[in-house]
Design goal:
CATH superfamily of one domain: lambda repressor-like DNA-binding domains
Structural class: mainly alpha
Radius of gyration: 25 Å
Helix content: 55-70%
CATH architecture of one domain: Orthogonal Bundle
Number of strands: 0
Length: 291
């Protein structure tokens, strides 16, 4: 991140203003010189006056101050997102080891969380879903200690929940209802049902079908509001699986869901939930096939 004083000096010089012109009536010229060399910091009100004197709003100044660092961060964020989305797990592992190193991640909280999340994804895939959740607990400790969640926290929660112990995930679900107050933020609207769908699946794997149904209901409320058909279908099939475990026969409904996934082009999703049914000993008497 560019130092505040360095940026003040750069903007002043870009505008052809002298130190005397910039500082007049706000602070002494010598104090401005010290500020430009990062040896002095004025009070907040004087800093605002200086920024305005230079013809910028506070928001514009902050954007310019952080722009270089955001570009730096975005390279690593976008690169890992690209590799994970395309399931290039081996390439992702190499990138995390050789380029997106622990030292790079230490430069910001965003980078730290992203690298830890991606290390968890590599671990999860390479060990077929078996991970040491303790390694990734710092993500959830951060979420637990936050007083309120904003878009960043909800996105982090949705992306990383598969790495949590189930009992931790349940605590986070309860906290979601009290910590996140802007439930119609378009930037995270699609993330909320993903979180609760994943949580409902964790509930099924831990023999808690009633909790799974509760999580599916929360997910459904968001998918309907957001017109999110894909996650609505996932919520539906998970709910039907929970009802099967509760001996409320919904096997035919699950088959319809699987067929609909295939019809919409989501054969991998159909295959995944077909296998999950087998793991949960839900007998469908149905073979995966294109229709």
């Amino acid at each position: 991140m560019a130092a505040i004083g360095e940026l003040i000096r750069k903007i002043r010089m870009d505008k052809g203003m002298t130190q005397s012109e910039t500082s007049k009536g706000i602070l002494s010229r010598s104090h401005l010189s010290e500020l430009e060399h990062n040896n002095y910091y004025p009070t907040y009100d004087k800093m605002i006056l200086l920024i305005n004197r230079l013809g910028l709003s506070l928001e514009e100044f902050e954007d310019e101050l952080h722009q270089k660092e955001f570009y730096f961060e975005d390279y690593y964020i976008k690169r890992t997102n690209d590799l994970s989305t395309r399931s290039k797990i081996d390439e992702l592992a190499t990138f995390l080891e050789n380029e997106f190193t622990e030292e790079i991640a230490s430069r910001s909280l965003r980078l730290y969380h992203k690298r830890l999340n991606m290390l968890g994804l590599v671990d999860y895939v390479q060990h077929k879903g078996q991970v040491n959740s303790d390694l990734y607990q710092p993500i959830f400790n951060y979420l637990l200690k936050c007083q309120n969640w904003r878009s960043y926290e909800v996105t982090l929660l949705s992306n990383a929940i598969f790495l949590a112990e189930y009992f931790v995930a349940k605590v986070l679900a309860k906290q979601f209802l009290t910590k996140f107050h802007n439930d119609w933020n378009h930037s995270v609207a699609h993330k909320i049902p993903v979180f609760f769908n994943n949580l409902s699946e964790m509930a099924l794997m831990n023999q808690e079908p009633n909790n799974a149904l509760n999580y599916c209901a929360i997910s459904r409320s968001y998918t309907v509001k957001n017109h999110d058909l894909y996650n609505q279908l996932i919520g539906n099939i998970t709910a039907h699986m929970a009802n099967c475990i509760l001996l409320i026969g919904k096997e035919d409904e699950i088959v319809k869901d699987l067929q609909l996934f295939i019809h919409l082009g989501y054969e991998d999703t159909a295959d995944y939930y077909h296998n999950l049914c087998a793991e949960l000993k839900i007998n469908l008497n149905w073979r995966l096939r294109a229709i």
